[in-house]
Design goal:
single chain; 578 residues; alpha/beta; 4-stranded antiparallel beta sheet; elongated
């Protein structure tokens, strides 16, 4: 809010002008009745009428300018909040993303900020304008007639009680409302992203039921809140009408007793309406503020969350003669959200991936292969030991410098909406046409790119949904190669390729990127047989390390994997060679 303090102060001054103009109008109206209409004094009517007209125009101008300022302030703040939340999430590690969940982060960035914006827009006006008009109305009403003050006092007490009841009833529901939106967002997102699985298993009815339950819970909570709000308006209207009737009835008796002028009744009635109107505005805020407070707390929680990845104030830089030798020294890892007594995902992992060599990782599902790559990228931090590149601990290096040295192909080939060219340039927006074509050629993507209408300008749908799995994987590999980094990480990036394409791609990599340090995670032995070094993982530990032929002779886990993938004849041939 700090950048908008000046605008808020300006709005406050304008609201004070608007309120004072409105508070002065009933007094002039009373004078018109008592000093103009009753005695037939036309000049008084014209003079007071002109003043009332001027006050009306001044009040309207102040209200219009205030509306402009409040809109700019509220939308400006929401813009700043969205940018702050988005930028904060960009620096989150995987641990923070998992903690909040994607669906909740989307809700916090959109719906929660919108709640704050809408409430702020109303609050600037009503929290300032309502007290001025309410307190001013009480003072002016008492100035006109003390004998009818008890009517306003009773009305005020009733409305304060109603506001308190509404606040007590609505607050707990508002606290749960945003969580229910999170839940609905989660169910919807899971259904949309997993629509093929839903159809394949004929679970449409189950998904309908799951969505209906989340939707019904949200709807019923929202209905309760809206009904509470709807109940409030007629109650206040009834209080207003009863107050009006009492003022007219009591005022008539006072006029007949010559204790008050007729004009004072009109003025007192108008001030009473101002007072009730002020409480009505405040009661509306009592309904909106709790939800905005909950939303603000959820936004604040994101903004104040500190990443578990810590960076030094004076980080080191890689040497100019960078080689790309990677060394894991007694690395252990446990996910941050797990308890301290749970077992590590990785235990005492030690190996060296020499510069310009290919190191492969293989093992059963859940053995920790992908985790090793994520630790190297500092998506998580090790809980024991250290990871070094060219002898420097990666925790001592700036995040940008570390990632600039690494080309990464994730397990799930993710493409962005746009064109083939825009996706390849995502790795390096300054990449030359020659480098792009070379990367596509190595990734065996050049043929299918040229066959598409527009070639490199061909459209890519969101998530690459208009491409096959193999095409997405090849473009994902090409994107990493465009970066021309000294280190490449391939996280099971050849799984969607047929054996022929896989072999051609690996041959091209070996020939045209032989000076790069490569870490390849794979499930197929055929993909990593020619690697310079193969690391076999089993339950988070290294079960074997060496070349293919060495592991076939020394590692039982590797032989079991080979036996499950290679034919009996191939296994016998391997053993004969040994």
């Amino acid at each position: 809010m700090k950048p908008y303090i000046g605008m808020i102060l300006c709005a406050t001054a304008l609201l004070a002008v608007e309120a004072m103009c409105m508070l002065m109008l009933p007094s002039y109206m009373a004078d018109i009745v008592d000093k103009g209409v009753l005695p037939g004094n036309i000049p008084v009517i014209w003079r007071n009428g002109a003043v009332m007209l001027f006050l009306t125009f001044l009040s309207t101008a102040a209200a219009l300018i205030t509306g402009f300022i409040t809109a700019r302030t509220a939308t400006g703040l929401s813009n700043d909040l969205r940018e702050a939340v988005f930028n904060k999430v960009l620096w989150f590690s995987n641990a923070e993303i998992n903690r909040f969940a994607t669906s909740s982060l989307i809700t916090r960035t959109t719906n929660d900020i919108m709640q704050v914006q809408n409430t702020l827009m109303m609050a600037i006006r009503q929290f300032i304008f309502a007290p001025i008009i309410g307190i001013g109305g009480i003072v002016m009403a008492l100035d006109r007639s003390v004998s009818m003050a008890w009517i306003v006092a009773i009305a005020t007490i009733i409305m304060l009680g109603l506001c308190a009841i509404l606040f007590i009833v609505a607050l707990p529901k508002y606290k749960s409302l945003q969580k229910l939106i999170d839940r609905l967002n989660l169910v919807t997102r899971e259904n949309l992203t997993g629509i093929l699985v839903v159809r394949a298993f004929n679970t449409q009815q189950f998904e309908k039921k799951r969505f209906a339950e989340a939707n019904k819970e949200l709807s019923s909570t929202a209905l309760f809140v809206n009904r509470t709000f709807a109940f409030m308006t007629p109650i206040f209207t009834m209080v207003l009408n009863i107050t009006t009737a009492l003022i007219v009835w009591v005022g008539a008796h006072l006029v007949s007793a010559f204790r008050i002028d007729i004009g004072d009744i009109f003025a007192f009635l108008q001030y009473a309406m101002f007072i009730i109107f002020a409480f009505l505005m405040i009661s509306i805020m009592f309904i909106m503020v709790p939800r905005a407070v909950v939303s603000a707390e959820r936004i604040k929680e994101v903004l104040e969350t500190k990443s578990c990845i810590h960076y030094k104030n004076n980080p080191l830089s890689f040497p100019t003669d960078f080689k790309g030798t990677i060394e894991f020294k007694n690395v252990s890892f446990r996910f941050p959200e797990t308890s301290s007594d749970e077992e590590n995902i990785l235990n005492n992992i030690s190996f060296t991936a020499a510069a310009g060599k290919t190191t492969a990782l293989i093992g059963s599902t859940g053995s920790g292969k992908t985790t090793i790559l994520q630790l190297l990228l500092r998506f998580y931090d090790v809980t024991g030991g250290g990871i070094y590149i060219d002898g420097i601990d990666i925790r001592d290096i700036r995040k940008e410098d570390l990632h600039n040295k690494i080309g990464y192909v994730p397990q799930k080939a993710l493409l962005f909406s746009g064109t083939i060219l825009s996706n390849l340039l995502y790795a390096d927006k300054n990449a030359t046409e020659e480098r792009i074509h070379k990367a596509a050629e190595i990734a065996q993507a050049q043929d299918f790119i040229q066959k598409k209408e527009g070639a490199y300008e061909a459209n890519i749908a969101q998530g690459g949904s208009n491409l096959s799995g193999g095409q997405k994987q090849r473009l994902s590999i090409a994107r990493a190669l465009v970066k021309n980094a000294p280190i490449y990480l391939f996280d099971d990036s050849f799984s969607a390729l047929d054996l022929k394409t896989d072999a051609l791609l690996r041959a091209a990599l070996k020939k045209k990127a032989s000076d790069k340090t490569m870490l390849i995670v794979a499930q197929r032995i055929s993909t990593i047989m020619d690697a310079d070094q193969i690391i076999v993982l089993d339950e988070g530990k290294i079960a074997g390390l060496g070349s293919h032929s060495e592991l076939m002779n020394t590692c039982e886990v590797y032989r079991e994997i080979a036996a499950s993938q290679l034919s009996d004849e191939e296994v016998r041939h391997e053993r004969c060679q040994l």
